[in-house]
Amino acid sequence: MPTTVGAIGIGIMGEPMARNLLRAEFTVFVHSRTRATTDRLCGEGAQWRDSAAVLARSCEFIISMVNDSPDVEAVYLAENGVCAGLSRGALCIDMSTVSPDTARKVARAVEACGGRFLDAPVSGGKTGAEAGKLSIMVGGDAADVARAKPIFDALGKATVHCGPVGNGQLTKLCNQILCGLNLLAVSEAIVFAKQVGLDPKVMLEAVRGGAAASWALDNLGTRMLTGDFAPMFMIDLQQKDLRITLEAALARRVPLPGTALVSQLLAANQAAGEGREGTQALIKTIERLAAMNR
Amino acid sequence: MPTTVGAIGIGIMGEPMARNLLRAEFTVFVHSRTRATTDRLCGEGAQWRDSAAVLARSCEFIISMVNDSPDVEAVYLAENGVCAGLSRGALCIDMSTVSPDTARKVARAVEACGGRFLDAPVSGGKTGAEAGKLSIMVGGDAADVARAKPIFDALGKATVHCGPVGNGQLTKLCNQILCGLNLLAVSEAIVFAKQVGLDPKVMLEAVRGGAAASWALDNLGTRMLTGDFAPMFMIDLQQKDLRITLEAALARRVPLPGTALVSQLLAANQAAGEGREGTQALIKTIERLAAMNR
Predict the structure, then answer these.
(1) If you classify domain B4-164 with CATH, what class do you get?
(2) CATH for B171-289, options being 1.10.10.10, 1.10.1040.10, 3.40.50.2000, 2.30.110.20
(3) Which helix (H) or strand (E) is A61 found in, with range?
(4) CATH 1.10.1040.10 domain range(s) in chain B
(5) ipTM
């Protein structure tokens, strides 16, 4: 009998991830806040379930991919949540990016109901999810990580076990520190290039092969030049991740001056109504600062 | 008859670059502030010249690789400088990182003496220079860039013509904006990882294949973890480059908040006597900030 997987949260990331599970021939059940978002997947073989609890009853594995810590708590702990329907020994994998404290709290509740829990946030965005090439950062017990391997292999190209529950999220926060500052680097370099009269496309070509190289330069730099601000990853979600990062940093008294600056500048994008654009729209804030100086 | 190249400034970068010119079977003449720094090269076939002017007399090409704008002005414009000995039609290539204004000023002087000039700063550091794999950003006339191709091919893996004289330097400043902020990204991510109890080595492994990827993460991150602060590129020189960048930005009224922050934090390294360490020592400043918070 094929393995049963329940996918909760069918959005920009959750939909292509569930599709890759179907392709890998898992039996896939889906639940999401808005049923219509699951229509395409149900046309491809997924089966709708009316609540997380009902979904949980049919599934050996449950993966969740939602926006923020309160959403994850609701998915697992609400009256009709996963914990209300969990089968003994079922393995829950939260792939959302949320606070490490939320991961630990939900893990305790799942274990109290006889289930197992991994936190497994991802990097790679929409294109990585579609290609099944996500980087997956996992926290939890080694035996559970091994058991989830067929799932992770269907979704990602690299899975790294980072320690106990919560460490997947903490590693993802490191990822977001890096992404945020690499993004600011590209924004400042391109605005500077334009203002001093360089052709920014030639500049990118000249520097991308050396010590300035980054994923952000290759992927976001080109989008900034063509004015393509469609979200690979939304500013509102990056801000949510940076908020969690800065809260965790404050709790441990780690100063992150650069990360804090990135978050302040992205707040200016949000104030300008650009929260649902891709993170590459950070360049608009730097450009507005430059324009103010004139 | 083999082409004659004069190399002025034999330091961390200039020495391996001159060595690659010897390997490419150019006839190489050398001059440097301190004669002893050229001993190894002279043992390998280079010929010492007592001044830049004397060196210029024998050479079709002259490359200079010195520290800062006043050094370049001295090399070309001083009493015993290149301009005092320049052969008609000789092509001067300054590969130092200096201000775009200096590049333009020296170019005018060289042209007034019947020579040609390119500004061609590089990226890739000591290891790139040794391997002949520098990225070279060139400003000047296309005909001169074409003429210099055999030289550039011996020194680098990629040469991009960025526009008229000065544009090589401006492109290099973009490179340094990127390198500076990518470096801060790695420093903050590793300090955060350590303070929240992650194994920073596992963290690097988990994030390096995704959207957080950068040259800095791969090359400086690992050195930060092993405490290897030997210079690939010195903090004092990075600060010189950021000073030129921030001056050029101020002149054009381009705000670079992230780049300015990086420079301020590197100033704390300089205050701690770490100016001659590699740029990866920036992590020490972030660690000291974290320690102060305790």
Answers:
(1) alpha beta
(2) 1.10.1040.10
(3) strand A61-64
(4) 171-289
(5) 0.94
Surface-to-core class of residue A259, CB atoms within 10 Å of its CB (0-12 exposed, 13-18 middle, 19+ buried): buried
Residue A110: both structure tokens together: 């799942």
* Numbered ranges of CATH 3.40.50.720 in chain A: 4-164
In this predicted structure, what is the pLDDT of residue B1?
66
Q: What is the pLDDT along chain A (294 residues), one digit of tens a residue?
A: 689 999 999 999 999 999 999 999 999 999 999 999 999 999 999 999 999 999 999 999 999 999 999 999 999 999 999 999 999 999 999 999 999 999 999 999 999 999 999 999 999 888 899 999 999 999 999 999 999 999 999 999 999 999 999 999 999 999 999 999 999 999 999 999 999 999 999 999 999 988 999 999 999 999 999 999 999 899 999 999 999 999 999 999 999 999 999 999 999 999 999 999 999 999 999 999 998 655
pTM confidence score: 0.94
**What confidence score (pLDDT) does residue B232 get?**
87
In angstroms, rounded to a whole number, what is the distance separating the alpha carbons of residues B256 and A292?
Answer: 13
Chain B residues touching A179 at Cβ < 8 A: 211-212
Token readout for A192 is 């500077």
**CA–CA separation, A182 vs B179, rounded Å?**
9
Q: In the 8-state DSSP scheme, what is residue B3?
A: P
* A64, A122, B96, B124, B132 from B216: Cα distances, Å: 33, 21, 22, 11, 20
What value does the mean pLDDT take over residues B216-230?
A: 97
Structure confidence at residue A1 (pLDDT): 66
Nearest to B189 among A174, A192, A207 (CB): A174
> Which residues of B are known catalytic residues?
172
C-alpha radius of gyration, chain B, whole number: 20
Say yes or no for a CB contact (<8 Å) between A135 and B210: yes
Which are the contacts of A286, defined by CB distance < 8 A and separation ≥ 6? A187, A188, A191, A265, B255
Q: In what helix (H) or strand (E) does residue B159 lie, and over which residues does it extend? A: strand B156-161
Which strands sit side by side in the sheet containing A61-64, from one edge to the other?
A47-48, A27-31, A4-8, A61-64, A91-94, A116-119
Q: Would you tell me how many other CB atoms lie within 10 Å of the CB of residue A166?
A: 23
CA distance B13 to A285: 37
- Give me A36's structure tokens: 């219509």
Secondary structure letter of residue A114 according to DSSP = T
Contact A94/A120 with Cβ under 8 angstroms?
yes
Chain B residues touching A192 at Cβ < 8 A: 173-174, 177, 245, 248-249, 254, 256
Chain A neighbors of B197, CB-CB under 8 A? 163, 167, 170
Cα–Cα distance measured from residue A78 to residue A9, given in angstroms and rounded to the nearest whole number = 15
Q: What are phi and psi of A143, to 5 degrees?
A: -65, -40
